[in-house]
């Protein structure tokens, strides 16, 4: 074998094709143009149906990109046959194992782009291979679609639902996960009932019946749609969201009220006003110095202390695994809330009453949406890396691809 052919074989060659010319064009960087035509006598197959074809209908010329050869951008100038397929009843492109139909890059370049897109931003990948941003995105999007769709939901028994902001908080999207397998099942634009319904329609009535529990925040659209579509699902309200609601509606409210009551005492007012983040912290994450500050604050503001203590107590509700014990604990907490003498706490306790079955369901289904909180952080990273050009569909595919789920 001659050395030139040996080198070509070692480089991976272009199966079924022979090189009819090589040209190096100087530039920044240089380009290598390799001319190829089908090898004499090589069997021809229809790209559509895969059957063998005898007749060549016509020749067409295509320019496609391959992996770079050393320092040069590499173009293939290919003569491709369109074969006459008896089965398909017309001219079809010949099958080429290393070049998919309609693609302007070889399969090996596409695979490399797809891998890099899982690690780097589109901009970086485009720059690295000197491809257009849109070309890189199209390659990655096509591969993600082929890998992720249609999604198989047959083993899903538990779902978690949450929302996240698109486009700097102007619009929202909904994400549905399998919290057990850590898999993102679905992402869709919007967060109202019609938006969320699309997930259940994709799930289908049979699979909907198999859903045993759905963990979520107290967003009515989520609750109502689960109740409508999943007759056997228990609604489970997540600790994180209930506590966040309490912090907003009680701790913050009381803090502002206390500060307002201190109009005459500017120094004391400032201390109360500045305590927002300190009060939001969990005692576990509070330093000794912060604990001293808290104690001083509480000594002068009893309602604030009561609000803070009752929040920490409420958290203990999620540690119960026995439904009766959980109920007993809730009733006791509710009693204390009503007797607290703090209006904001009483209002919260009254308002939360309607959600109690879902809060107590946690005893039987100890689920939480912390996975979704993690996903929300990852979404921000994906947005920076892959987004920016407002293609929601691609963005959502990237989110799903980042959480493919653990094996059972
Ligand atoms: Zn055919």
Basic shape: elongated
Structural category = alpha/beta
How many separate domains make up the residues? 4
Number of helices: 17
Number of strands: 12
- The run of helices and strands is HEEEEEEEHHHEEEHHEHEHHHHHHHHHH
Low-pLDDT runs: none
Percent of residues in helices comes to: 40-55%
The distinct ligands, each listed once, are:
zinc ion
Strand composition percent: 15-25%
What's the main sheet like?
5 strands, mixed
Cα-atom Rg, whole angstroms?
Answer: 31 Å
What distance lies between the first and last C-alpha atoms, to the nearest angstrom?
51 Å
What's the pLDDT, averaged over the residues? 92
What is the strand and helix layout of this fold?
Layout: H1 3-11, E1 17-25, E2 31-38, E3 44-45, E4 52-53, E5 56-69, E6 72-85, E7 90-93, H2 107-117, H3 122-129, H4 133-148, E8 158-166, E9 171-178, E10 183-189, H5 193-203, H6 205-209, E11 213-216, H7 220-229, E12 234-237, H8 239-261, H9 266-273, H10 276-280, H11 288-300, H12 302-315, H13 323-338, H14 343-352, H15 356-360, H16 370-386, H17 392-402
Parallel strand pairs: 2-6, 8-11, 11-12
Antiparallel strand pairs: 1-2, 3-4, 5-6, 6-7, 8-9, 9-10
Zinc ion (ZN) binds next to loops.
